[in-house]
Design brief:
alpha/beta; 4-stranded mixed sheet; 381 residues; 14% strand; globular
């Protein structure tokens, strides 16, 4: 899940928001303003309900962010770096750069999220009780009580032992500890995730068809997401199993075609590099050091009348926004960070110099070769 726009960084971790957050944000605000709050405390000005609904939605998403930041803190303490955190339609996701090294580390990283949500639920519940004792306006107490309930619900739902939920990670940690095989443990957790997803999806459809409740459609949507996410996680685990022990250098394209930093866009498009029909080119600065990544799409966006004056380093993706790895890095650990698109090519750098470039096609080709090789060995060829 890629962020539509960023909110900045917290403790060095990029925080992003997917456009779908606007949908759930609006649904929460609308549901509280026109539903729960208006029913519990009628005869208030309509604007008061909407202000309370929007404030509750903001605090709820701050709670989601706290949940994901807890994963981030514990992951770092267990030697796992975090790429970014993205808030989206069904909550949040902290994207890890690698996997936990032991079942115990997996347990700690996964378990802290629900614990934080449960703790927040308790804090909000205590706050609602104290506010009620202090004769605070009932509307405020109702909002705080809702925040307590939704955080507890979030903790309970995330603790369900089904991937990709935190409970699925806990199940994987347990199976990994019992079997000693991380791949088999992942298969078990993803199977549980698909089963739970189908249960929610079918239950939601039955609820909608039987009562006409749109809550049933929402339940079905959550179930569909769990099925899709668990299936994707299972496939990625299989890929990691196939690529176990394979370094990046075995899959990368060595000595790729490059573009000098001072080259004009016009010269680049008119030069021989354009005829290679690649979609992205590493940009090289002084002493053959990479400084960024130029995509054909980025070069073509420059108006032709300006192309003689604009250089490639002005329109490239800077190195700070490009994934950079070393040739000896494990290819399997890189998989979660790779995404489609020319702007997401991975640059392989050795000793400050460009060694190669890596794409999802390179990974796919490597996986195909390894699987064919393994099949031939099994068949005794």
């Amino acid at each position: 899940m890629r962020a539509t726009f960023g909110l900045g960084r917290i403790a060095g971790v990029r925080i992003g928001v997917h456009w779908s957050v606007l949908l759930i944000f609006g649904l929460i605000a609308f549901g509280l303003a026109q539903g729960r709050l208006a029913e519990a405390y009628p005869d208030r000005p309509v604007a008061v309900y909407w202000v309370a609904g929007f404030l509750a939605a903001i605090v709820f998403f701050a709670s989601l962010l706290a949940h994901e930041l807890a994963h981030t803190v514990v992951a770092r303490r267990n030697g796992v770096d975090v790429e970014d955190i993205v808030l989206w339609l069904l909550g949040g996701a902290a994207r890890l750069k690698s996997e936990a090294s032991t079942p115990a580390a997996e347990l700690r990283i996964a378990g802290v999220g629900p614990l934080v949500s449960l703790l927040l639920g308790g804090v909000f519940a205590l706050g609602a009780w104290l506010l009620a004792l202090a004769s605070t306006p009932g509307l405020v107490v109702e909002v705080v009580a809702w925040l307590a309930a939704i955080n507890v619900l979030l903790a309970v739902f995330n603790a369900v032992p089904a991937a990709p939920l935190d409970g699925g990670r806990l199940l994987r940690a347990f199976l990994w500890w019992r079997t000693g095989d991380r791949l088999k443990a992942t298969a078990g957790a993803t199977a549980a995730g698909r089963s739970f997803g189908w249960l929610l999806m079918l239950g939601g459809l039955v609820l909608f068809l039987g009562s006409g409740s749109f809550g049933g459609l929402w339940l079905a949507l959550v179930g569909w997401f769990l099925i899709a996410a668990a299936t994707a996680e299972g496939r990625q685990a299989q890929l990691r199993g196939v690529l176990g022990g394979v370094p990046v250098r075995d899959a990368m394209t060595a000595d790729p075609v490059t573009a000098p930093a001072g080259l004009t866009v016009a010269d680049f498009l008119a030069g021989p590099s354009y005829r290679y029909r690649h979609s992205a080119f590493p940009v090289i600065g002084e002493e053959e050091t990479p400084v960024g990544l130029l995509t054909l799409e980025g070069a073509r966006r420059v108006p032709w009348e300006s192309a003689e004056a604009v250089t490639v380093d002005e329109v490239m993706v800077p190195l700070s926004k490009t994934t950079v790895v070393a040739p000896q890095d494990p290819l399997a650990d890189l998989l979660p960070r790779m995404e489609p698109g020319a702007e997401n090519r991975v640059l392989v750098v050795d000793g400050g110099r460009l060694a190669g470039i890596l794409t999802l096609s390179d990974v796919s080709r490597t996986v195909t070769w390894l699987m064919n090789f393994a099949r031939e060995r099994r068949e005794g060829r």
